[in-house]
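Re-running DNA binding protein to confirm reproducibility after the cluster update. Everything else is unchanged from the original entry.
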Amino acid sequence: MGGLRGGPNIASWIVAGTLAYFLWVKPSQDLKRQQEERAALAASDPYRYIEKRKPIPDPQENGLIYGNKKKTDSKTEE
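Result of re-run:
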C-alpha cells in the first residue's frame, strides 16, 4: 500500500479523503441542493420564479463587431 507505515500512512489517507470531499463530494451536494431549491420555488409559485441568467448583450448595439458600429449620417448633421 504505497510503502508508508503507521502515522504517515494515516495522514496521507486523511489528506486524500479531505481533497476528495472538497473537490468531488461537496460540489455535487451543493449543486443538488440548489436544484432542489429552484424546483421547490418553481413548484410553489410559477409566476414568481425567475431564472438567474445574465442577459446576452447585443454586439451591434455595443459596437463589438468591427465595421458595423453606429454611424451618424453626415447629411443630417449639416
